[in-house]
Amino acid sequence: MTRYAMITGASRGLGLALAEALARRGRNLILVARQRDALEAVASELTQRFGVEVLFRACDLSEPLRISGFLLELEESDRHIDLLINCAGLRSYGHFLAQDWMQEQDLIEVNILALARLCHVIGNAMAVHGGGQILNVASLAAFQPGPWMSNYAASKAYVLSFSEGLREELRQSGVKVSVLCPGPVRSAQRLIERLASSQRVLSPEEVALYTVRALARNRAVIVPGRRNRLLTYGARLGSRWLVRKVAGAINLAYRPR
Ligand SMILES: NC(=O)c1ccc[n+]([C@@H]2O[C@H](COP(=O)([O-])OP(=O)(O)OC[C@H]3O[C@@H](n4cnc5c(N)ncnc54)[C@H](OP(=O)(O)O)[C@@H]3O)[C@@H](O)[C@H]2O)c1
Prior knowledge:
The chain is α/β, with parallel strands linked by helices. The protein has helices at about 15-25, 35-50, 65-75, 100-130, 150-170, 190-200, 205-215, 225-235, 240-255, and strands at about 5-10, 30-35, 55-60, 80-85, 130-135, 175-180, 220.
């Protein structure tokens, strides 16, 4: 049975950098995102450069029925996923009441529901096969409430808490669970572009390299960047009143224009 690492949100940004870092280490991959053309281009490039098998599946993770179809396909194939990386994620920014509800719902579907469902189905398959590894991508935003991006920060707090809990639950099953909490990463997102111009921001490749090494050491909570690690301590030690005021002020200062 051929083994694969499956990565959601692998067509660009951090997911793509993680796919490349794993292909470089000889891992066969299954890539998931919505846009088929982008996935096809990534798959063909990684196969050419690293000689690994790269399969891809266009699937909108905000649509539960499409996820069901995809999971059924996986179950019927003889492909074994021994590393699952839930990287696909949506972000929203602004006054919650002014946001389009369908976008907020999609965020919850992708960031929370799809992630939990993939952990459930693929985690079960891993346990049956004697083990595997799951990496869920949260954010530095998971450590405190995030005024002006409250739904996003809350979704990432779910990912952090869920992953840490699951890690303990699955310890006996041989399934290892880690959670990645990156700070701002240089990417196509406008918010991050503004941040990148004002301070040192890690590239997706730097975050991916740090993450792959931390995964090999089975680290529970992975926070790339020394300054980011310091920020997580600040969020845990400060009073909740102060932490949410500071988080709100930072989010407002770096709002997308
Ligand atoms: N960038 C940052 O600064 C930063 C910081 C902290 C945490 N994070 C987290 O890291 C992860 C990756 O962030 P990123 O900035 O690299 O993201 P990105 O560049 O916006 O890429 C998002 C990826 O997810 C896929 N995707 C989006 N909606 C999807 C859906 N409904 N179904 C399936 N795939 C979908 C996208 O492909 P399609 O459009 O083709 O679907 C793309 O491959 C996210 O979970 C994000 O919250 C990012």
